[in-house]
Amino acid sequence: MDETEFDIPAAMAESVRSRAGARALVRGFAAYWGEPLGPGDGFPDAELDAAERRLGLRLPVALREAYRLFGRRADLTSSQDVLLTPAELYVLDGALVYRAENQGCAHWGVLLADLDREDPPTVVRPDLADTSRERWEPWEERFSTAAAAMAMTEKLLEEHELTDFLELDEELPGSLRELPALGRSFRWYRGPEVLVGVAEGAWVAARARTPRALEALYEAVPGEWLGE
Fold it and tell me: pLDDT tens-digit profile of 18-53?
């Protein structure tokens, strides 16, 4: 798939409007930046049904759709943080937990009160030294948005020879075009065959499709890249 076949700005913009748009973004993104999604990349309904019986609750439609589409694709779900399997889903203080930070510093979930919504908002719970102060806090307005942002974020952070990181000292050059907003982890940019995420205005994660594209990024954004 070349760049003319996957219009990432349009796909990202559409992903926040509907569940179908979010799924289309994940499909196109997976194919462009790695391998197309296949039948074995998602969890079967039987495992999701078993999770519902074990927990005694109904999983939201958007959650089931994401798990069925790409829940087994580690490069889109668990390069850094971890998407729980259906068998690992659990309830904590009024929320269904579906994702965990890789060192247990935070967890993401859906409030039990929102499980009857097809595409419910998500919440996050930071791990604090004083556990009595831990609370569920708003995260994304729609689960489908959270899932699409997760797929892009985890792919960007995948351990790969064409991935690199940089502490940001200056503004990015104009040759990198900002993409539509998606998720809270990064502000997104793209260059020729390069995807860039800027976190908290302080550090950059970048993924190139070719060694030549990565070298061009090094020239465009000079600095102490970890892998250069």
Answer: 999 999 999 999 999 989 999 999 999 999 999 999
Element (H, E) at 83: strand 82-83
User: 160-220: which CATH topology?
Assistant: TATA-Binding Protein (3.30.310)
CATH of 8-152, one of 3.40.1580.10, 3.40.630.30, 1.10.3720.10, 3.20.20.150: 3.40.1580.10
Is residue 29 within 8 Å of residue 1, measured between CB atoms? Answer: no
Q: Span 96-104, mean pLDDT?
A: 92
Find tokens 């958007």 and name the residue.
62
Spatial separation of the C-alpha atoms in residues 128 and 221, rounded to whole Å: 36
Q: How far apart are CA 49 and CA 44, in angstroms?
A: 9
Q: DSSP letter at 182?
A: -
In whole angstroms, what is the distance from residue 88 CA to residue 85 CA? 5
Q: Give the predicted TM-score (pTM) of the model.
A: 0.93
